[in-house]
Write a structure and sequence with these properties.
The protein has helices at residues 15-24, 33-44, 54-72, 85-96, 101-107, 134-150, 163-175, and strands at residues 4-9, 28-30, 79-82, 113-117, 154-157. By secondary structure, the protein is α/β, with parallel strands linked by helices. It comes from Rhizobium paranaense.
């Protein structure tokens, strides 16, 4: 769907801060499935966590991403997704070989412009929900950097500039689309 815009990239690269700025400017934002799943699993003592059962975690992320797309269909205007179905399916495919990325990539399209936040070691912080190290985050970023173009998306690597400038870049690209 052309109104659905993916903000993806390296963990700890500033995605959430960018999305908060886009929300502040009046846009609809869908929170990252992975963070929501980790919080739910930690609260209930579950095991679908990336450090305990990564395939179960990725399967939940795929399901949640599909549900998020359905829920967002009624929202007006642009809807920005903090990661989304392609990220979740790419993780599942990497872990298990499951998830046909080509099929999912065609049946659940997003705006052709995808914005990636590159690795930014100076701001990377592990926390309660993000326990992987920077090298794992960079490996995931590298996978996503090749997967999105292979599915026909035009990837825009966001520069390491202020959050206001990043938001302006995103909106400028989309205004010119």
């Amino acid at each position: 769907m052309d109104r659905f815009v993916i903000i993806s990239g390296c963990s700890g690269g500033g995605k959430s801060t960018l999305l908060e700025e886009l929300r502040r400017r009046g846009h609809q934002v869908v929170e990252e499935p992975g963070r929501r799943i980790v919080i739910e699993e930690l609260e209930r003592g579950g095991s679908a966590l990336p450090w305990l059962d990564a395939p179960a975690f990725a399967r939940r992320a795929v399901g949640m991403s599909i549900s998020d797309r359905s829920s967002a269909a009624s929202a007006p205007g642009l809807v920005f997704f903090d990661r989304g179905l392609i990220d979740a399916a790419a993780a599942l495919h990497h872990l298990t070989g499951e998830a046909d990325l080509a099929v999912l990539g065609q049946s659940h399209r997003y705006n052709r412009h995808v914005f990636l936040t590159p690795p930014w070691p100076e701001i990377y912080v592990a926390d309660r929900e993000r326990r992987h190290d920077l090298s794992a985050a960079i490996a995931e970023y590298d996978r996503l950097s090749s997967i999105y173009p292979s599915l026909g998306y035009e990837v825009h690597i966001l520069p390491k500039v202020s959050i206001e400038k990043r938001a302006n870049i995103v909106l400028s690209v989309l205004d010119g689309a």
